[in-house]
């Protein structure tokens, strides 16, 4: 009698089961295993569910094993595949860029809700990294002019490649640190997910963030250095009634509201993430 298909160790289903067990240190072992196997097979994840009894070739098994070993030793899945989905856009990411997070999709959602879709706005994504925020806005609002900057030339290369591959033409990238190279009164909105982790935060030594660029994560002793810099510079670069929208840490809501107030912003609003923490703050420059 031939072995029943689900007992064979080299089927897609059996491979995924064994892999998920091995990735028990991850918060999402099943998902990680699926994303890595789909990547090796060059297929979407749905293929794995459609063909669970399909067997893998020796080459596919070896390729998967290599990725699994690196994931088991802590490397982020996005670094192993070189890709991360954000706002339904497949973005290339590298070790130079922050790995885009679902939390930041809420910042995009808020920007789309608060900014006037009927007008041709100029919006800057400051510190764009892989281009995530800028490209999501560019996709949703083809008639807006999206600007995106970063101080890291490596990030700008990744972001520009993403824009090209996704054929998003209404976004321009330029080198610069926050608002340094931005003209006075030139923006309808400034959106940013800056670094905001305190330099001694113990989370920096745990999980995927260990492999991400420190410059994209850490912002001084209390994590607020870049948020201070952005709130201080925004009134100069925003047009009257322009909007500043910022992502920040779960315990920084009060501090960011204070910074916005100190800089004269009005209509200060704050928004919770899916876990119930206030992670987005916005304000309007007097108009
Ligand atoms: N939200 C990320 C984290 O806590 C940090 C991203 C950032 O600093 N902008 O891992």
Describe this structure in words.
The chain is built from ten helices and nine strands. It is an alpha/beta fold and 287 residues long. It has two domains: 5-73, Ubiquitin-associated (UBA) domain (Helicase, Ruva Protein, domain 3); 83-284, Vaccinia Virus protein VP39 (Rossmann fold, 3-Layer(aba) Sandwich), CATH 3.40.50. Strand 1 and strand 2 form a beta hairpin. Glutamine is lined by residues 98, 101, 103, 193, 195-197, 209, 217.
Helix content: 25-40%
The CATH architecture category of the largest domain equals: 3-Layer(aba) Sandwich
Number of strands: 9
Structural class: alpha/beta
Order of helices and strands: HHHHHEEHEHEHEEHEHEE
What small ligands are held by the chains? Answer: glutamine
CATH class of the largest domain: Alpha Beta
Number of domains: 2
Low-confidence stretches: none
Q: What does the main sheet amount to?
A: 7 strands, mixed
> So how many helices?
10
Rough shape? elongated
User: What would the average pLDDT be, to the nearest integer?
Assistant: 96
Q: Find the CATH topology of the largest domain.
A: Rossmann fold
Q: What is the name of the CATH superfamily of the largest domain? A: Vaccinia Virus protein VP39
* Order of the strands making up the biggest sheet: 5-4-3-6-7-9-8
Radius of gyration: 21 Å
Alpha carbon gap, first and last residue: 80 Å
Strand content: 15-25%
């Amino acid at each position: 009698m031939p072995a029943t298909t689900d007992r064979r160790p080299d089927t897609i289903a059996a491979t995924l089961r064994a892999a998920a067990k091995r990735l028990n240190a991850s918060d999402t072992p099943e998902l990680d295993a699926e994303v890595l196997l789909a990547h090796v097979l060059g297929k979407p994840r749905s293929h794995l569910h459609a063909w669970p009894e399909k067997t893998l070739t020796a080459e596919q098994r070896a390729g998967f094993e290599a990725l699994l070993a690196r994931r088991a030793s802590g490397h982020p899945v996005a670094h192993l595949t070189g890709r991360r989905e954000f706002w339904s856009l497949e973005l290339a990411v590298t070790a130079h860029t922050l790995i885009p997070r679902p939390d930041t999709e809420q910042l995009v959602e808020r920007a789309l809700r608060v900014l006037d879709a009927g007008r041709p706005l100029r919006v800057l994504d400051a510190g764009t990294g892989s281009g995530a925020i800028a490209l999501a806005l560019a996709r949703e609002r083809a008639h807006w002019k999206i600007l995106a900057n970063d101080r890291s030339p490596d990030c700008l290369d990744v972001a520009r490649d993403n824009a090209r591959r996704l054929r998003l033409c209404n976004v321009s990238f330029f080198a610069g640190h926050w608002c340094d190279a931005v003209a006075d009164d030139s923006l309808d909105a400034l959106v940013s997910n800056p670094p905001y982790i305190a330099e001694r935060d113990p989370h920096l030594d745990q999980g995927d963030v260990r492999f991400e660029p420190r410059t994209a994560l850490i912002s001084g002793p209390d994590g607020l250095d870049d948020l201070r810099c952005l709130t201080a510079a925004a009134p100069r670069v925003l047009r009257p009634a322009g909007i500043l929208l910022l992502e920040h840490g779960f315990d920084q809501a009060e501090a960011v509201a204070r910074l916005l107030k100190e800089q004269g912003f009005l209509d200060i609003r704050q928004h919770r993430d899916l876990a119930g923490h206030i992670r987005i703050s916005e304000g309007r420059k007097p108009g």
